Each structure stands twice: as C-alpha cells, then as structure tokens.
Amino acid sequence: MNCNEAKRIDIISFLAKNGINPDYNQGVNYWYKSPLRNENNPSFKVNSYKNLWFDFGIGDGGDIIKLTSLLFKVDSSNALKILSVNHYSSHQKDSYNADSKVLITNVKEISNIQLINYLESRKLNLNLAKEYCKEVSFKLNDKNFYAIGFQNDSKGYELRCKYFKGSSSPKDMTLYKNNADKLLLFEGFIDFLSWFSCKIFFTGNHDYLILNTLSFLNKSKTLIKEYNEVLLFLDNDEAGNKATAEIIGSGLSKCTDMSKGYSEFKDLNDSLVRR
Fold first, then answer.
1. Which of 73, 95, 117 is the last residue of a domain?
2. What's the confidence (pLDDT) of residue 100?
3. Beta carbons of 270 and 187 less than 8 angstroms apart
4. Which candidate, 78, 159, 162, 210, has a CA 20 to 30 Å from the CA of 138?
5. Comparing C-alpha atoms, which of 163, 183, 195 is closest to residue 271?
6. DSSP annotation of 93
7. How many Cα neighbours within 13 Å face the side chain of 71?
8. 211-254 pLDDT, tens digit each
9. In this structure, are 123 and 56 located in the same domain?
10. Can you tell me whether residue 74 is helix, strand or coil?
C-alpha cells in the first residue's frame, strides 16, 4: 500500500475498528475524546468530507498516516504496514457535497449566546461582527444548525461556529469597495474581522477582498490589477505562502506581504488571540 492508497481509507471507520467512537457529530465534523491523550471533553475532530483530523489539545492534525503513526507510536513506513494488513473502508469524498447539502433556513442579526461566545473566543468585536455578519440557521443532512454567516458576492454564506466550518452555495469572493486605491486581501472573513483589532495595520482608507477560499486566487487577479497597491494578509502555511508568492510574482500591482507582521502565528486571527 502506498501513501495515496492509505489516504483513501476512511478515518472514522479506522477509529471505529480500533474501538474509538465519536461522542457526537456536527454536520461533517465528528468529535471524539482524543485517542492520543487523556481528556474528559471531546476536542479531537474528524472532518468526514475532507477525511482529515485535528486535535485541539495538542494543536496538531493531518491525514490517516500521521494519525496511525501517533496512535501506534511508529514511523510513517510502519504506519503504512499497519494500514495495509487491516481492511478498512475507503473514504468516498464524492458521497458528501458540503456546499449542496447546506440549506439556509433563516438569517438574522447575531444574538445567540453560543455564537457570541465563539466570537469572543476569537477576540472579535461583536458590533463589528454584526456589521459584516449574520446569525444563519441552516439544515445539513436533515439536521438543524446555526452559525456565524458571512455573505459572499453571489449571496452564498461562509458558515463558522465552534463546531462547524463550511459554506452554502454559491461559493464566491466578497469585495467591499470604499473608493480606495489600496486593496487589502484576506483568505477568510475571520482574518478580515481580526484586522480591525490589529491597530498596527490600521491606517488610511481601503477596499477589502476576502477570497473565502484560495481556489479563487486566479479570479482575484482581475481585481488586483485595478489597484495601485495591494496588501496581502494570507496564512503562514504552505498554501498561504505559495499564494502570496504567486500574487507578488504576477506583477499585477504593487503587492506587499503583510504576514511578516504576524510571522510567529498561523494567521492574523491566531496572532490576535495569542498575543
């Protein structure tokens, strides 16, 4: 079994065959008491759509190979051997379409205390969040949920709460125009909202572009070239760094990598929470 074959193994089935079952699920996210350490409250998440896991207690996650390595205390080579000699169900990503199964049922001003607590945990100003976001109720797999909703330019919503990260169709970018010649570009709306609390960056008049996914990077270039200056507030990870380098290298505008101002952190919101 090679790495690609192993990554097709369904993590939830793998855990179940090893006697590890979720405490509950919120849409595509299944929550467990961590199998990697002792805990009383579940903080180990498996995203059934992406087939990836994350342990909030240790701040780390990844694919099934890494999980097997940590669970059985072996290197990746031996993890592949463990996975190859056992028969686990294959992960069928196409069986779940995260966007098409999200049905918006209600949109209103943010008032739910759990969502307010979520915003506070991310150090986001409530009044600012109310200006740009809504409280969105939605159905997913015939179950009712609610989340902070951030609307894109095609009227779809990015949806975030403590236990859910997803979106409704259609997916698109979000552009706020203030007749400025300077554009601030963010990957997601949590970082966009965080920017207003990071006073070291707060000067002058700006337009704002929130990609909502790096998949819209090429689409964003049409807008970028319309500005004299573009400030990039992307994540400090491989994908974010690659996107930043691509935009700067395109020569479409005078682009500045602002992630150096929070280089010790995963992203702008992480710097706001942990500073």
1. 95
2. 42
3. no
4. 210
5. 195
6. G
7. 23
8. 998 888 889 998 999 998 999 999 988 888 999 999 998 887 88
9. no
10. coil
CA dihedral 209, 215, 218, 222 (to 10 degrees): -30
Tokens 């098409």 belong to residue: 100
d(CA 60, CA 44): 10
Number of H helices and number of E strands within the chain?
Answer: 10, 15
Spell out the residues 6+ positions from residue 128 whose beta carbon is closer than 8 angstroms to its own. Answer: 193, 196
Q: The domain containing residue 154 runs over which residues? A: 102-167
- Do the beta carbons of residue 157 and residue 149 sit within 8 Å? yes
Total number of domains constituting the chain:
3
Task: Please choose, from the candidates 186, 191, 183, the residue with its C-alpha nearest in 3D space to the C-alpha of residue 230.
Answer: 183
pLDDT interval class at 199 (50, 70, 90): low
Amino acid at 244: T
